[in-house]
């Protein structure tokens, strides 16, 4: 019998060994394929710049949230500084035990607490922050000074507040001169000892982002950044995605007709006019003013990162009830892979920083200066 050639021997060996070799390299192939799919998903989710009408974008709503995680107030205009819109998240509720910030992630019904700014006027010598509660709570309304005097601050306890891993945020425990203290009333409402605190003057610096590793913008008690924007078109697009998922992943039939309120996302500036959703994903730099033509002296606003989302938007802003699926599960399906640092997190809206003081009004024009990928 003739001896097999070297080539025939090699082919026979390969035939016997190909299965274990394939099994050996299968995990590597799987990881490479997964990475390719994730990259493809992220790229395919990026908006096409050319589909946006950048000449007709206007501010449609401005929301101020004086106390973090409590009800927001729609205002016709707002002044802003580097720290954010005036009076937006200047106050927060903290646990009396450790001064950690309490949010509606912990106590959903916090969204029903109604802070109202009462500005200084002829009949009101000094501005007030008036805080009211649902009638059935049994908690009385109270007011505190909008701009406490130096004498006030000397009598208020100074504390270091903890938020998102930082425990050195300067704050003052707010007091009133009549009735129960704000902290006592809030403690009754949430069901455990808490304090109402106002942000102190020591700057709280925003965390760096992927595009801005040396970011040094200040903020109040916002989750991370002084500004949050979203477009009406983006919210409408998510509304359609929700209706398309009714019956899946716990999305209830009521969402065939229920409206997804923009207030769930707790933005500051809402705009409309781009003609397509998610322009904020690519709107890296813009100005806001009252004329259709851009004014060179208008303050520049920069969007520095996507806003990654948690369960808080699932809380209905008018009832305080948390939905088991909407919108987070829908966002997880349609809005992942957009943040380069946290690709597994869902995103909705974008965080921004101000470069100088200014004023924004409902009806103002958004003038696009730069587009890219936020």
Search tags:
alpha+beta, 5-stranded antiparallel sheet, 20% helix, 28% strand
Brief write-up:
The protein is an alpha+beta fold. It has five helices and 21 strands. The radius of gyration is 26 Å and the shape is globular.
How would you describe this protein?
With 374 residues, the protein is an alpha+beta fold. 20% of the residues lie in helices and 28% in strands. It contains five helices and 21 strands. The strands form five sheets. An eight-stranded mixed sheet has the order 2-1-16-15-19-18-17-21. A hairpin with an 8-residue loop joins strand 1 (58-64) and strand 2 (73-74). It is globular, with a radius of gyration of 26 Å.
Described by strand count, sense and barrel closure, the largest sheet is: 8 strands, mixed
Distance between the termini: 72 Å
Q: Low-confidence parts lasting 5 or more residues at pLDDT below 50? A: 16-23, 27-45
Approximate strand percentage: 25-35%
